[in-house]
């Protein structure tokens, strides 16, 4: 198994805000074996009896002046096409929280773990459960009309090894209560868009696990505080919240996006078509939210809880897979008042804790998985430095700068027949 030493790096362990300068990291078998000074000198000493000490065949990679952070985790995405995998990795995202899962997602997850697929590790919810909602164009969600529908959704979610049951807000109150009860009995956390028909405090009291999107939070500060203090998690997804005013009302167009050309042509065309339907739907309903109100709700939650994650909701039209994570982190700093450390924690430590993998991922520590990103800049001084990815290590895989750059542009040349899309 390949062994590496990253030498002379500046390490953000994410235990706290401290940076450990000019330090080496020894990686073996996909794990961080040792962190310390001058580990590369051990290569010249020959093989040691200690399994956590570098051997003579260890490759030494000098990252002098670079900054090492844990692999990023997109806390809310829809990994629905295989081209997305390399874009995630190119942007330092080594794991994702996929928020609509079908059997093929479970297969993707297994294939990635087995080394047969290039892309982030996948931790997924099951399908989206919702009630009848005519405001959603081309609604493909699992519609909950009876208790039997609830049972089927739970069985499918558990049967495919998914971690959460996901809900949309139009489930009828009695069915929603039944869903929450049965999910709790099965040990299955429930996440999603809260409820339009049931007091959100009821969801909190029943252990609702995570509110997705600032726009899903209730209107009143006291109610938001109640959710935050209940122990609920929260994913603001501010960037996607802004797509409604930007594209529907303010005239923004998809080709203006910095990395729009890096998407496959068929995806660009699909996004344009979807966006026209979205614009028509929202204008027809006259829905025109004040984005300042949305931000205020998210900030209120974060006043009372640090259980929040950075998620992008890619690949919703306008949210580029991988690249949108930097946008989201910048918005957490600029709009939500987070420090760069708090924003970075929302993409590393926090989602790892939420998922239940905090002992393996989310920090740079001996014994943890070697999911690491090498940056050409200090993200604690400028969170935008997360864009400056020089190298990505994901377990036993190392992607150097040349490979990362190729990943960034490769998808733009793919033809429709070369891409697998996961349909539902």
What features would you describe in this structure?
This protein is 33% helix and 20% strand. It is of the alpha/beta class and 424 residues long. Helix 6 (221-229) links the parallel strand 12 (210-212) and strand 13 (233-235). Helix 1 packs across helix 14 (401-410), helix 6 (221-229) packs across helix 10 and helix 8 packs across helix 9 (265-285). The two termini are 39 Å apart. This is Amidohydrolase family protein. InterPro entries: Amidohydro-rel, Metal-dep_hydrolase_composite, Metal_Hydrolase, Metallo-dep_Hydrolase.
Short description:
With 424 residues, the protein is an alpha/beta fold. Helix content is 33%, strand content 20%. It starts with a strand and ends in a 14-residue tail after the last helix.
Furnish the topology, listing elements before pairings.
Blueprint: E1 3-12, E2 19-28, E3 31-36, E4 59-62, E5 67-70, E6 72-77, H1 84-90, E7 93-98, H2 103-113, E8 121-130, E9 142-143, H3 147-159, E10 164-167, H4 173-185, E11 190-192, H5 200-205, E12 210-212, H6 221-229, E13 233-235, H7 238-241, H8 243-249, H9 265-285, H10 291-304, H11 324-334, H12 340-345, H13 349-355, E14 371-375, E15 389-394, E16 397-399, H14 401-410
Parallel strand pairs: 1-4, 1-5, 6-7, 7-8, 8-9, 8-10, 10-11, 11-12, 12-13
Antiparallel strand pairs: 1-2, 2-3, 5-14, 14-15, 15-16
Helix pairs in contact: 1-14, 3-4, 6-10, 8-9
């Amino acid at each position: 198994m390949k062994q590496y030493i990253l030498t002379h790096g500046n390490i953000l362990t994410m235990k706290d805000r401290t940076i450990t300068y000019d330090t080496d990291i020894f990686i073996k078998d996909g794990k961080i074996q040792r962190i310390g000074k001058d580990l590369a000198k051990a290569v010249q000493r020959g093989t040691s009896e200690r399994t956590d000490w570098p051997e003579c065949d260890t490759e030494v990679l000098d990252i002098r002046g670079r900054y090492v952070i844990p692999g990023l985790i997109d806390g809310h995405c829809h990994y629905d096409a295989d081209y997305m995998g390399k874009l995630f990795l190119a942007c330092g995202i080594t794991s994702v929280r996929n928020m609509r899962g079908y059997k093929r997602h479970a297969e993707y997850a297994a294939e990635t773990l087995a080394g047969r697929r290039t892309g982030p590790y996948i931790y997924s919810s099951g399908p989206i459960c919702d009630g009848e909602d005519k405001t959603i164009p081309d609604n493909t969600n699992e519609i909950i009309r009876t208790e039997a529908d609830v049972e089927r959704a739970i069985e499918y979610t558990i049967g495919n090894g998914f971690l959460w049951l996901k809900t949309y807000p139009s489930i009828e109150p009695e069915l929603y209560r039944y869903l929450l009860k049965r999910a709790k009995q099965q040990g299955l956390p429930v996440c999603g868009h809260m409820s339009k028909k049931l007091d959100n405090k009821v969801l909190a009291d029943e252990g609702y696990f995570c509110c997705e999107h600032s726009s899903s939070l209730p209107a009143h500060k006291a109610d938001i505080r109640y959710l935050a203090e209940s122990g609920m998690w929260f994913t603001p997804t501010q960037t996607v919240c802004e797509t409604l005013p930007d594209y529907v009302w303010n005239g923004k167009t998809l080709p203006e996006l910095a990395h729009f050309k890096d998407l496959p042509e068929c995806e660009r065309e699909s996004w344009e078509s979807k966006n026209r339907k979205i614009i028509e739907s929202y204008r027809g309903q006259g829905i025109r939210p004040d984005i300042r109100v949305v931000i205020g709700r998210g900030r209120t939650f974060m006043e009372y809880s640090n259980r929040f994650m950075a998620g992008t909701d890619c690949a919703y039209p306008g949210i580029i897979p991988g690249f949108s994570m930097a946008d989201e982190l910048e918005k957490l700093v600029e709009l939500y008042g987070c420090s760069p450390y708090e924003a970075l924690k929302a993409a590393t430590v926090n989602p790892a804790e939420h998922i239940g993998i905090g002992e393996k991922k989310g920090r740079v520590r001996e014994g943890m998985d070697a999911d690491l990103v090498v940056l050409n800049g200090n993200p604690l001084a400028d969170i935008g430095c997360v864009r400056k990815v020089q190298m990505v290590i994901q377990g036993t895989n190392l992607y150097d700068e040349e490979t990362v750059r190729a990943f960034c542009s490769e998808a733009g040349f793919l033809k429709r027949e070369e891409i697998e899309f996961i349909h539902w």
